[in-house]
Design brief:
This protein is mainly alpha-helical. It has two domains: 85 residues, Rna Polymerase Sigma Factor, Chain: A, CATH 1.10.1740; 75 residues, Winged helix-like DNA-binding domain superfamily/Winged helix DNA-binding domain (Arc Repressor Mutant, subunit A, Orthogonal Bundle). It is rod-shaped and about 80 Å long. One of its GO terms (biological process) is DNA-templated transcription initiation. It comes from Robertmurraya siralis. This is RNA polymerase subunit sigma.
Length: 176
């Protein structure tokens, strides 16, 4: 009987205050579809946690608190996604420019030396580097092809680049 009472109160409250709650969420996220999605998440969360509602609190405050928390969760996810893209997952320090003729010769010679250096790397580091830089595969494509998490591919790329830097530095020292 107690559960039925809360369900009825919940339904009544939604009928009366649902539009204002939706508007509140919209003002937070400034996107109609997103506000509607978050509104649905708020309702589901509130309904599933009705038994945790304490009568000494105001039901409206409780619902708005859930709404604020859902908006914060969304903002955190957005911030994490933005950071992910800011790290330029698909492009690691690659410049798009047309080389001068003398640069082309130097680059061609350097490329052969670099490929020789890359071939000296352990296979787990060599494969992602070759796929990324010479086969123009994205990190996601490499991840799928090798059946590895993208974080593993990124780590192997970073380690391979570090090893290549060390080897080229040693080659420069030996040349001087």
């Amino acid at each position: 009987m107690e559960e039925n009472k809360w369900q009825e109160k919940f339904e009544d409250w939604i009928r009366e205050n649902g539009p204002s709650l939706t508007m509140f969420i919209y003002k937070q996220v400034r996107n109609k579809e997103l506000a509607e999605d978050l509104y649905q998440e708020v309702l589901i969360s509130a309904y599933l946690n009705l038994e945790q509602f304490e009568e000494r609190a105001n039901f409206k405050s409780w619902m708005y608190k859930i709404a604020i928390n859902k908006c914060r969760d969304f903002w955190r996810k957005q911030k994490a996604a933005q950071k992910f893209w800011e790290e330029k997952v698909y492009h690691y320090d690659m410049e798009c420019s047309i080389p001068e003729p003398e640069d082309y010769v130097i680059t061609r010679t350097s490329t052969k030396e670099m490929i020789d250096t890359i071939n000296e790397l352990p296979t787990i580091y060599r494969e992602p580097i070759l796929l990324y830089y010479f086969k123009d595969k994205s990190l996601l494509e490499i991840s799928s092809a090798k059946k590895l998490p993208i974080s593993t591919v990124k780590t192997r790329m970073r380690r391979a680049r570090n090893q290549l830097k060390e080897k080229t530095l040693l080659m420069e020292i030996a040349a001087n």
